[in-house]
Write a sequence for this structure.
């Protein structure tokens, strides 16, 4: 039972609230990534679970035991940090077994544990090597093996791959997933890299300003973000946001509107709302068949094109007075669209675009809370009514 529970955990440093009334339950055997921008409280949360930092308020439970006042060594956790601190004058075997020697395990037990850990992280045959004879990835595996030999109930990893080059990071991601499968223990993993979080986690905990915003499987965070923060943070490039209002006829903004009946969706006309649409859900109108039931056509002019190889990002300007360049990043006059790499699209071209209605998100602009994910299309709704009417005949 290696589950971890945080109950109303707060950490204050003078006037900074690093973690703010955090409630979180990481289940036994789960791989949970804590993600969020720099300074949002990820490391502080982790340090409190590890016992390196005391919460100002609240309680922490590991495997059902209240560990809030227990020292790190009595919590059944092992940590792996970003900065790999190996003893340079000790070989791999001695580095991995160091903690066990301090705890007076006998030689046979130490041998057994080191060999198993070395096998798991695939360092067999390297036990005699010195740290300066190893690559960054191998050294990080030594650090992980050192955590494994302690048989922790919970692994705490704080940006363990941050110092590795991009290719090695991708490789180590798969290794960590394999490790998690093999060890079947709980892993809490801090990263600011959402690709890492998306690919490795069972669930992602998105944190902003010390507060938990959403904890859900990666695709739920992507497809059904709980609020504007999660919607903007998960996904690269980020979701497009367009500020507008709900009217009796649907969504209205400066440059375009989307027709639907708010009452059908349980929404109130008059509310200030922000429409969210991901770049891959914006289409050229002449490809609209692929969308199923698109929104009405939006006039746009293509601005900058960014060919990525597998897709092209197209910056669209929605009005003649649209700001361009850096200023346009936050402008509601701009939409980012992703198109196929073989598209003949060019810069400064007039185009008609549509949004995939089933992928439109609406958020309450003032609270940021999600109101709905995916619009029910009026055409489809009418279709259903007609069919029902016919069958009644
Ligand atoms: P993250 O890991 O998400 O980058 P941290 O948990 O390190 O964020 O920090 C959260 C906030 O708490 C930041 O504003 C940081 O400056 C502050 N903080 C962290 N540790 C301390 C400390 N020891 N003393 C004062 N402020 C701190």
């Amino acid at each position: 039972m290696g589950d971890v529970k945080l109950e109303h955990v707060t950490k204050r440093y003078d006037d900074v609230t690093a973690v703010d009334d955090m409630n979180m339950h990481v289940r036994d055997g789960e791989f949970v990534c804590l993600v969020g921008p720099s300074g949002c409280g990820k490391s502080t949360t982790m340090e409190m679970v590890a016992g390196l930092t005391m919460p100002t308020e609240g309680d922490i439970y590991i495997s059902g035991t209240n560990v809030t006042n227990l020292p790190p060594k009595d919590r059944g956790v092992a940590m792996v940090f970003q900065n790999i601190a190996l003893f340079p004058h000790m070989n791999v075997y001695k580095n991995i077994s160091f903690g066990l020697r301090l705890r007076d395990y006998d030689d046979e037990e130490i041998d057994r544990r080191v060999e198993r850990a070395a096998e798991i992280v695939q360092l067999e045959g390297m036990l005699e090597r010195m740290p300066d004879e190893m690559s960054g990835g191998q050294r990080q595996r030594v650090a992980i093996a050192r955590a494994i030999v302690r048989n922790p109930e919970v692994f705490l990893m704080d940006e363990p791959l941050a110092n590795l080059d991009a290719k090695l990071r991708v490789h180590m991601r798969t290794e960590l997933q394999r490790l998690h499968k093999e060890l079947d223990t709980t892993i809490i993993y801090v990263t600011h890299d959402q690709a890492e979080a998306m690919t490795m986690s069972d669930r992602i905990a998105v944190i902003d300003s010390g507060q938990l915003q959403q904890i859900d499987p990666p695709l739920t965070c992507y497809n059904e973000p709980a609020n504007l923060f999660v919607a903007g943070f998960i996904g690269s490039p980020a979701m497009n946001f367009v500020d507008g209002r709900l009217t009796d006829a649907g969504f209205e903004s400066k440059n375009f509107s989307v027709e639907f009946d708010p009452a059908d969706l349980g929404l109130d006309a008059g509310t200030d709302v922000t429409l969210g649409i991901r770049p891959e859900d914006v289409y050229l109108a002449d490809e609209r068949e692929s969308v199923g039931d698109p929104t009405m056509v939006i006039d746009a002019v293509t601005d900058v094109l960014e060919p990525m190889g597998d897709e092209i990002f197209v910056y669209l300007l929605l009005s003649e007075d649209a700001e361009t360049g850096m200023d346009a990043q936050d402008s509601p006059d701009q939409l980012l669209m992703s198109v196929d790499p073989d598209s003949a699209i060019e810069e400064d071209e007039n185009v008609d675009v549509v949004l995939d209605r089933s992928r439109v998100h609406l958020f309450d602009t003032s609270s940021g809370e999600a109101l709905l994910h995916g619009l029910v299309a009026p055409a489809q709704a009418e279709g259903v009514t007609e069919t029902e009417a016919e069958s009644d005949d």
Residues 238-392 form a domain with the OB fold (Dihydrolipoamide Acetyltransferase, E2P) fold (CATH 2.40.50.140). Residues 203 and 216 are 5 Å apart (CA to CA). Residues 13, 16, 18, 36, 38-44 surround adenosine-5'-diphosphate (CB under 6 Å). The chain has two domains: 4-232, 238-392.
